[in-house]
Design goal:
globular; 11 strands; 349 residues; four-stranded antiparallel β-sheet; alpha+beta
Length: 349
Amino acid sequence: MDSFYASVEQRDNPSLRGKPVAVGGGPEGRGGVVATASYEARAFGVHSAMSSKRAQQLCPHLLFVYPRFAVYKDVSRKIREIFSRYTDLIEPLSLDEAYLDVSNDKLGIGSAIDIAKEIKAAIKSELNLTASAGVSINKFVAKVASNMNKPDGLTFIGPSKVERFIGQLPVEKFHGVGKVTAEKMKIRGLHTGADLKKLTEAELVHLFGKSGRFFYKIVRGIDQRKVEPNQETKSIGAEDTFSYDLETLSEMNPELERIALIVFQRVSLYKLYGRTLTIKIKFSDFKQITRSKSFTEEIRTIAMVNEVSQSLLAAVDLEGKKVRLLGVSISNFALAADQGMLYQPRLFP
């Protein structure tokens, strides 16, 4: 989907149409984080995971809208109903993105490109939203292609063009390549897929560990992952990177409580109650640790989430350390509902 949350808000509220919109927490106080920005806002450099304060600096007339996840979930369900007319092999990645294996062509259309066109048209006519599609021979290439001509795009990468397409791809576009890995690659003169292809599998594994095997295969167009319907949701979580480093528990606990509330609200919304709670801590030097605690019974109250997360944090030796990120997640579910339909952004308002 194209700027999904912001597009839903603009669709439902005519006063927001054609204006720069950020879905997320506002810039007041310590400020929140942008979950999604409309294309009007993106023109000013506003993007997801950006602090709301920074977003407002870039676009002073930016309109902030608090997210309505129940509404997005309902729209997502309708989108998935459209998908199911064309194939039963659907693997949702989030509320606004999914893989479809259309070799299972229920309507006998006979063309993946035509199927993508029909799905896009149905989403537009029935839900008044736009979607972009990538069509190719495997997951990796299709996902990259889906982001190439947004909004309302459709990009086809045929079998004969896959290796050349990947060869021209900047390394930061590869799955699993974040800023740190991208910089590590560039220092070694590895800027594109073609550069990675010059290295042996052993050399890539030496440099990048297990990811090296993935890089070796993917630059040759090899991605044998299947579209997996009904994938089981393993955890529900939220985390936040702070605008300045936290140094004391008195600073950290209110932030942890805020994040825990978001997690608990989502656990309650999806009726997924787990027995294991995990906190994540990333320090100013980017080293990170996790601490977990499991129970024989499900975690069903916000009081329990707060108590356990704060006790786990208190047990960590924070002497002389500064914290840039905190996260909370719940896992080890007894019963999973709406599998594959969860939105889990890395940053929350």
